[in-house]
Design a protein that fits this description.
heterodimer; A: alpha+beta; Leucine-rich Repeat Variant; 14-stranded antiparallel β-sheet; elongated; B: mainly alpha; two-stranded antiparallel ribbon; globular
């Protein structure tokens, strides 16, 4: 009997002790969620905070409810928000119903969060909608009266600004947790959740690189008439080019097509009249099959040109020219090569982004491959936007979702992210080495007069090489390339010309303290050699070089100084250019 | 240091050799100039965009083997005369000629007797500008 009493007392003591421990645990978890311990760095604290939220969600302790409600409402970009939403369903407290309904009705929320809230609400026995029912406030668990919640506008005007968890203030940036500094659905994070981004381009998982470029060069288009000279003139120069390329581990392919139109009409007073049209259309395709670094390559190219000119010479009718010419090329080439050169501009942009976050102490962890891919494809999808706003909002949302960006960015960091997104120095940044040799067969259609040195079947050997490297935190670029071609099997009436050349270039990019592109220094050199293989023709060699310096003083002003020197078989050409754009720097005030 | 000097010396010899090769050629004192990658070879050899200036357009003509760089023979249509011709034109005509040259393939730019003694009256882009 005595033993039984002792055992019962021990059990009671154990249960009481466990209850006390749990009570102490809950308080400790709440404290850990609210305040970052001094001995934990940001990243570790974020992890422990999530663990604490999970424990609170399983605690069945009523004190956990307001804490989880606050997390569910404010932590829209960290997984802790989803832990809280799920936990509110487990805790079974009706006080969470309005918050869960608000989340479900919020279009700015991620779809997965809204779905979790729907499930949690179902556990509480409440309905998601219930328009017109109830009077607001807290509905009891299982009660039918719920409050309709108006959808939150997709663009907030200010963050919640509570300066709580995750809010990061960069030293030196005035303002602290201001409009952009709050947690949760702040100005940037609340604008466009990643789930509402446009459809991302479909890129194979094993793609090393890909691009799609649409270039429209409006050139010039002019029309003029004056009654004094009774002169009409019109000219237009318009070109468009589409390029697409995909680089995968085992293969690469790409194609491009373009058109170029030049038209002119000059009709001065009198009989003189000049008019003409130049129309060019081109298409190219290439495919490579890789085995390790080696590859087999096939290329095809087609081109057609129409040229019409009519020039009436009023002073000398015998000199009048009216003619239409049509030329066409169709060629294929096969060969092999080694290596590849990729345009890594988008990857450099991701690296610059990581550096900007790291410098602002807002980088929770390195940007891993999956997030880098998502960022790049999002930028690709938004490339047609006139404004960078959506790209900025999407970038912040993706980084927050991935746990990379710690807290909503403040004004200073937002500006630096924007600078990275707008950096025009990150286009066409080559990396790698590539060399190939091809043998081509083609047919060139040329007019009979004047007789062309290249007409009919044309065979040739084509060689090319390219190199690119991004160095010194991507601020230094070294690139180069070479080519060689030789016509083979030319008939006796036609020559076998050859040409070879090489080019090297170095570019050094400069940035300001907050990522503003300041300019670049570029140095390049070219060497070309050729022989037309015509009677009495010469072997030509040209050496040329250029040193340029571009500097943007501010958003409205800049200049470029360039010097070049060239030598072509003894003829020396030296030039220097200074181009300056000065904008007025206005300071204005109006009441 | 010695290796670097040897390398420079070798480069100098190569350059001198190229100059020597260039010395044999046309019978008169005409410098034809050097062809670019796209001067021959059809559509497989892409041309970089020509600079939209009078000098740039005339360099494209040299690159394509349509005209020579310079000549001691009077009245030859060389790079220098090409630049002078374009710069004398009214702005609209000059713009048209430069655009036409930039859009043309090398084969379209060459005329009879190119590059040593071309007749500018046969050059279609120049005629488009009302030469």
């Amino acid at each position: 009997m005595r033993a039984a009493v002792a055992l019962g007392a021990a059990l009671l003591a154990a249960v009481a002790s466990q209850a006390q421990a749990q009570t102490g645990d809950v308080a400790a978890q709440i404290k850990l969620i609210d305040t970052q311990p001094a001995d934990l760095d940001k990243s570790t604290w974020k992890d422990k905070r999530r663990d604490a939220a999970r424990k609170l969600a399983q605690s069945k302790d009523k004190r956990a409810v307001p804490v989880l409600i606050k997390l569910a409402e404010t932590e829209t970009f960290d997984i802790i928000g989803e832990i809280a939403i799920e936990g509110l369903g487990n805790l079974g407290d009706g006080a969470a119903v309005p918050t869960l309904q608000k989340i479900i009705a919020d279009p700015a929320r991620d779809k997965s969060q809204r779905e979790l809230a729907r499930k949690a609400l179902a556990k509480l026995g409440a309905e998601a909608g219930g328009a017109g029912k109830g009077t607001g406030g807290t509905a009891p668990a299982g009660g039918g009266g719920v409050t309709p919640v108006a959808p939150v506008p997709p663009t907030g005007t200010a963050g919640t600004g509570d300066g709580g968890a995750g809010s990061e203030v960069k030293p030196g940036n005035a303002g602290g947790t201001g409009a952009l500094g709050g947690t949760g659905a702040g100005l940037l994070g609340g604008g466009t959740p990643s789930s509402e981004l446009p459809a991302l381009p479909v890129i194979d998982d094993d793609a090393l690189a890909a691009y799609e470029r649409i270039t429209f060069a409006g050139g010039t288009a002019n029309f003029g008439y004056d009654s004094s000279r009774k002169r009409v003139d019109f000219d237009a120069d318009i070109a468009g080019l589409y390029q697409k390329r995909v680089e995968r581990e085992a293969m690469a392919w790409g194609w491009d097509a373009g058109a170029h139109v030049v038209a002119g009409y000059i009709n001065p007073q009198g009989a003189s009249l000049s008019r003409g049209l130049q129309l060019d259309a081109t298409a190219n395709g290439e495919a490579r099959l890789y085995t390790g670094g080696l590859y087999g390559i096939g290329r095809a190219a087609g081109a057609a040109q129409l040229n019409y000119v009519s020039d009436v010479d009023a002073n000398n009718p015998g000199n009048t020219l009216k003619d239409t010419r049509v030329t066409a090329d169709l060629q294929v080439a096969l060969g092999g090569g080694y290596g590849r050169v990729l345009d890594v501009g988008a990857a450099v942009r991701v690296r610059r982004l990581a550096r900007a976050l790291d410098a602002a102490r807002a980088l929770g962890k390195p940007i891993e491959a999956a997030t880098a891919r998502r960022l790049q494809l999002t930028w690709w999808a938004l490339r047609g936007e006139r404004s960078t706003y959506r790209a900025l909002v999407a970038t912040v949302a993706i980084l927050r979702e991935a746990g990379i960006l710690l807290g909503e960015p403040d004004a200073g960091l937002s500006y630096e992210i924007l600078n990275v997104l707008r950096d025009s120095q990150l286009y066409l940044r080559p990396s790698g080495f590539d060399a190939n040799l091809l043998v081509s067969e083609g047919y060139l259609q040329r007019p009979d007069q004047p007789a062309s040195n290249e007409a009919g079947r044309v065979e040739q050997i084509l060689a090319s090489a390219a190199y690119g490297a991004q160095l010194d935190d991507d601020k230094l670029e070294l690139s180069g390339g070479g080519y060689a071609r030789l016509r083979l099997f030319a008939p006796d009436t036609q020559p076998s010309p050859w040409a070879a050349g090489a080019r090297v270039r170095a570019r050094r990019f400069a940035y300001g303290d907050h990522g503003d592109p300041l300019g670049a220094i570029d140095l390049s050199g070219d060497l070309q050699i050729s022989d037309d293989d015509l009677m009495g023709s010469q072997i030509g060699q040209r050496v040329s070089g250029q040193l340029g310096f571009t500097w943007w003083i501010n958003a409205a002003s800049g200049f470029r100084l360039a010097a070049n020197v060239g030598e072509d078989r003894g003829a020396l050409f030296i030039g220097a250019q200074l181009e300056a754009t000065y904008g007025l720097l206005d300071g204005t005030f109006a009441r | 240091m010695l290796a670097a000097m040897k390398r420079c010396f070798a480069i100098a010899i190569v350059v001198m050799n190229f100059a020597g090769l260039g010395a044999c050629g046309a019978g008169d004192d005409t410098t034809e100039g050097t062809r670019a990658v796209c001067a021959q070879g059809g559509a497989l050899t892409d041309c970089p965009d020509a600079e939209r200036t009078a000098q740039g357009a005339c360099w494209r003509l040299v690159d394509c083997g349509a005209i020579s760089v310079k000549s001691d023979v009077d009245n030859r249509f060389t790079w220098g005369r090409c630049v002078d011709t374009l710069e004398r034109q009214t702005e609209d005509r000059q713009r048209l000629v430069i655009s036409c040259i930039a859009a043309s393939t090398c084969d379209e730019l060459r005329v009879q007797n190119s590059p040593t003694d071309p007749d500018p009256n046969n050059m279609r882009c120049l005629r488009l500008g009302g030469l």
